[in-house]
Amino acid sequence: MAVIAVPYFLDEFLPDLDLVLRPDEVVAPALPDAGTWDRLAALYRPVARAAAADSAQGGCPIVTCGDCCTALGIVAGLQAADRAVGIVWFDAHGDLHTPETTTSGFLGGMPLRLLTGPRPELIAARLGLRPVPDEDIILVGARDLDPPEVSYLAGSSITLRDVARLDTADLPDLPVYVHVDLDVLDPGDVPGLRYPAPGGPTAEQLAASLRLLIATGRVAAVGVACTWYPGHGAAAHVAPFLEAALTTISP
Q1: Coil, helix or strand at residue 132
Q2: pTM greater than 0.90
Q3: pLDDT tens digits along 52-62
Q4: Per-domain boundaries in the chain
Q5: What is the Rg, in whole angstroms, of the alpha carbon atoms belonging to the chain?
Q6: Whole-angstrom distance, CA of residue 18 vs CA of residue 224
Q7: Fold exhibited by the domain 3-246
Q8: Beta bridge partner(s), residue 63
């Protein structure tokens, strides 16, 4: 199990971002003076290599980062190591937009949808990322969804669950990538969140769900998106609970 730190919010390097868990490796390449998708591809290629290397050795890479789009590199790395995976995605938001449905243009609202295969020319093709079928995805804790995301989910086979109601029977018959956007937590417990959404679970409840998943022996990798602004000491509020849960991963 390697802990890989990616201290970026999209393509913005944040050296002072307080990430949970002490890293074994930091991915911080020089990014080209180019468009955002080009810069993200240059960032996520080494993320994919690091995840693939640990996975190929039988490890369970844990990636701490500043946003959810880093998951594109992590899943590409698992696939490169010949690990087809399902996804358990903890997030207060859907992250299910495409460039055609977003009104804000925010790329951080797109990663889960992009993992399912649309618009591969944006970044998936550059990473060698293969689509993950909707039926192999569980979206957990989402409560702040835009109308296009609600419409997409209505016709999708993505499973929706609350954190407290997650059941291992919901899992696809595959190893799983577990993605945790820490804004899934109630913002009253986590200072400085970029996109707070009231009504979330406690860190204890989240940790219990993670232990439930880890106990199946099917977790292939974990991504932890620390989606807060630097300078609030947010990591200290949740790190003890995450550390206690993630250290139950067998080597």
Answers
A1: coil
A2: yes
A3: 999 999 999 99
A4: 3-246
A5: 16
A6: 12
A7: Arginase; Chain A (3.40.800)
A8: 4, 223
